[in-house]
Here is the input.
Amino acid sequence: MISVVVPARNEAERISTVLRNLSLLPVDYIILIINGSQDTTLQEVLDLRNPKLQLLHFDLALGIDVPRAIGAKVAYSIGSDTILFVDGDMVGTFNENLIELINGVSLRHLDLALTNCYPTEPRHIERYNPTFHWRQMLNKELGLFKKIGLSTPAHGPHVVSRRFLETVPFRELAIPPVAMALARKKKLRIDVATTLPHYRLGSSIKNQMHASKIIDTIVGDCLEAIAVYQGDERERQWQGKSYIGYHAERRIDFIDQFLS
Here is the structure.
């Protein structure tokens, strides 16, 4: 059984396109987690009357990546063995890439099938974008850099196997690099299954403040993942700076409540 998990918050005028595109895939369920929305996202979704849709609606804003963990638990509970993650703002047309990701698990027997969103590696990545530098550092630490480059479950669609969800605690999916580090530690199979340049995702364009907080979030996630992989105490600090970003808004406590 194949399920797609789609987090959405304030995605009116975009979510309909995302769901219509996903409905064309050979999937059994589309698990949509609307959380903290203050626009017409919910009504727009209800108007679609999509027969594949499994809708979870929370008035509470769950924070970045937390809806993935919630959706993964639901997908697992209904018996899914292949779980695709696509963000609710990705209006690009790339179903052929999603099929390749699904095949990465169903045919290649990967446990984590990733998207390569940067097929041409930027030069001087440490100056180009701090997230590139720390994604590289993490993937080198995991012994995966030669295979997956800068790819990460924090960026772009990806697919996990049922075995992944049986091995990595659901709550850890709220911090994608940590989930990947734990999967690697347990010797699960991780590889790139498709190449999809970032611009083709069609993600919504955010302001500079958002970009800055996303950078701090991903850098902090990578630092935490490296610590977890090395068996050290978790930390999000490097050279005297703490990389928090949106991490403080993640409702990890709500995941624990939901799971119990």
About this structure: The domain at 2-119+150-204+252-259 is CATH 3.90.550.10 (Spore Coat Polysaccharide Biosynthesis Protein SpsA; Chain A). Residues 208-230 form the longest helix (23 residues).
